[in-house]
Amino acid sequence: MAAVVGALTIASGSAQVVGPAGTRPSPSPSPAGANASRPLPAQPPVGVELPPEPAPQRVGAIVGDLPPIPSTVPPRLAVAPFENHSSGETLQWMIAATPFEIAEKSEQWKRTGAQVGKVAQAERLFVREQYHAMLGEVLADLWTEAGFSVGAAEREVFARAPVGDPYAVQLFGRGLGYLCGAFAPVVPATATAAAGSAAPGPPAAAPGVDLKAAERDLAKAVLIAPKLAEAQRIFGELLLMQAQGDGRVISRAAGKFAYASDLRPDYVPALRAAATAAAAASKREIAAELLRRLVRLRPWDLELRYRLGEALWSVGEGELAVRELERVLTRSPQHLPARRALAVVRAARGDLPGLIRELEAIEVLAPQDPEVKLELASAYSASGQWRKAEDALIAVSVLRPFDVPLLVRIGEAVKQRGDLDGALQWYQRAIRTAPESPAPAFAAAQAQFDARRFDDASRAYTALQRFRPELGATLQALGAIGLLRARYDEAAWVLRRAVRESPRSLATRQMAAAAELGRRDAAAALLQLEPALRGWPKDPVLHYLLGLARSQLRDRAGARAALTQALTLDARYDVARAALAAVDVGGEPGVVFTPVIERPWGDSAALAQAVARFHDAHRELLAVRTRHQAAVVSILALLGQGPLAASAAERVAPRRCPLRRMAPPWSQAQELMRQLIRHGVALEDAARFLIRHDDAGYSAGLLPGVRTQLAAARREYRVALADLAELRAQWQRGVASELRRARCTDALLAAALAFPRRFPSGEEERAEAVPPAAARRAPPRAMFYVDNSQCPDPAMVWIDGESVGVAEAGKRSAFVADPGERTLCLTLPESASCGDRGTVRQVYLHDEWTVTMHCAK
Known about the structure:
Radius of gyration: 45 Å
Largest sheet: 4 strands, mixed
Strand order of the largest sheet: 4-2-1-6
Oligomer: single chain
Helix content: 55-70%
Shape: elongated
Strand content: 5-15%
Structural class: alpha+beta
């Protein structure tokens, strides 16, 4: 037999249950109902100061199956752990288990209630086997005396035993005590919130915490009573404490939380822990569904609604996410995490006024946070409010005086306001802070170029030649200044160097050709245009410049064709249209060209444009890749390979290459590979620009949504590089080897593409008549010479016993015969005959071969 005395205090919206006979309340609170998203504490925070109950407010309509936030919030509970004042250790398990069960059952039953100020007491004697029934009677009497109506259903909830085996409950209570340090000496402190309260931090080095002993008892408890949901959940918390980043242990803890929530679908701490674990494992849909269930169970919990809003946004339910976050902020305007989450949503949806509104509210709540000011400055810059952006950035620069990207951003804001001299002062400050960084120096030079201060810009760019990685862009800018000043010789000399430094730069090629045309050197312009047109065959500016070069060379037909092609590529190219009109009337059009410099270091707007340019190039790359893959599969099918070869018979490679049918997909695959390379070059240029700025810290000036796209671009760039390498390997090691095995050479395929009727397809091969054998070509002939200039008599010339002519006396005579090894005989008339001594020799005849006759004088 044992006696239990309980006391319940409800005041100012909180409730406290005070302990049984043989025990008394411990100042250390119980972990009952602690937030399962974090480990249980050994010594939770002291004291619970609850805000006054909010006044009823009008809430919005129910979103889907989510209830609105109620106008009243139920009182919060604080249950203190007990101390064992008995002579034995048999009641030790009750120190943590009894407060835990009191809090769990009270939280499960009590959903609403008014504030009261009463103290209720109850006393019982009980047999250990009837512990849960006794505790239920005590709770019912306490709540009844406190002024709450407790019916039969509530009494049944209070008296219900978690499992049938009391030993499992005792093991659970003992493990819970070891876990939260309840068996340590009493340290004075006040009680804190119980079930469903905010999660405390992990027990770092709290006295009385024994994780090994807790693990032993909790493991035994879940082994004896696997359906004890509370033990499963607390065991999961213990595993999280011990995980230390081990993914297998974390997964095991998540399994415990999920099992506990399956055993009790309305068990709020287990659902909360399972939702947190699912979110940490990137199982967003599962986390969102668990949070929905939690909000239905606790519609007044603003923290749960905030987390639900984040989860809904992560699964693509933007409207519901915004409504839930706005509900939280309507009830609690100072809820900073909800403000931040809503700001992220506004930024991702492109709602710039809404983003500024949220960031301004966050700045009021966190005035000392420099990151908020930086985000607000980015939003002001994107909306054109440069004065406000400048003020916000200057406020941060007081805290970060040596932040070079920040100083450059301030200069950009000042320049956008129209104060170029003020901007140059900020740029110079950044240059003095980091003279090894090229970004502020390029920002100053580009600002002077844009303001058409060509003398200052020329000096600035000349000094920038010390930065070797950006030398091509520097030389290009110097060439552009020469073009704008009409100093074509100087511009041409600099731009030739720029082309050598950046051969893949289209703008540099265009400028170099324009400079050569300006100095009327059309031949030199063609040297720039011909390789450029091979790389960019559809660029209208290159065709326009080609037309001007042809015109300067007096090739009017070529000029007309090039200018017409430029207008075909861009019908709104008025400069090309005017040049074509001048050519048609017999005139020579002048060079009308405005250089556009490349900016290796740009501002936030240029960075945002580069992000968009990267994603456009990536989409084009993926589309071309899909078409290239289809062409490859078609080629393999013609060879009896791949997924399109439907039957086993078709998978046998043909004995002869079906050239006529193979040529079109082969040509298409070759052209698509060239397009892949062109799009890959554009993708690489944009990616290098973005990576360079991101690594240097200049991406901080972007909006949050654009920064997310930049991070995605870096990942996609790595994947694209690997994908292009795989495509090359697929063609070289797979398709090309199969084509060689089938004797489909590139030369034959090119010929079949050019003259398809000369090559039969696979089906026509047998039906076509065998073409007549072509007449044998006459063997080539060789012209050789017999020099008879030293002899007074003519000589007879014989080849292989046949006479081929007479070498006249005193002359060098030419003869024609079959080339190769031959028998040559030279005889004088009416003297020796072929075969006599000195008349026959073996020679190798070829063109220009000569033999000289020597005669006695």
